[in-house]
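Troubleshooting log. The previous structure file for this entry was overwritten by mistake, so regenerating from the original sequence record. Sequence copied from the archived sheet and checked twice against the printout by T.R.
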Amino acid sequence: YVCLQNYRRVFDGKEIDELIQDHPDAIFARPIPLGYYGNPVTVARQYPLMHVDSDFATFLGNLSCQSWVNLDCLQQWLHLNVLVAPCNSFVMVREHYNQFCERLEKVIMQTLEDIGLKNIAKRDAYQRRADAFLSERFTSFYCYQMLSQGERVKFASLEFKDNFAEKQEEIDANGNTRSK
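Regenerated output below.
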């Protein structure tokens, strides 16, 4: 198995150990509801509300022309009001992981090329992370298609880890690090 976790959201090791006993093809983070100011929204609607709309359209164009993509499954995924497999976090059998990486690279690199790195560089710091936001959507669709194809997929909880406040306390008013 290969594990990839978000730096601020981690799996519970005991839960993963239990799930692996069933020999799944992949374990993804549990789906999270999508909303915007308290109102549920679909995958298709949520990304443009939070990020650059044209990036998602470019991504979908590049994703939909891949021979491995089931277009009916893609349409179903776009109408979900949950983000399947959020936070780019998963545990996957190595063969599936290798295939995932090959497909992710092809779609994301083409999308970034189409968007243009110069255009991305002009954005604010948050929106410059387009590759991460689009990769999260890729992971979500990939998981959804695995489920639709009957692959052995399990879901696990993610725990939010935010030690930023601790790190702030270690820095004095002049920006110097204080020792504990």
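The mean pLDDT is 88. Archived copy saved in two places this time.
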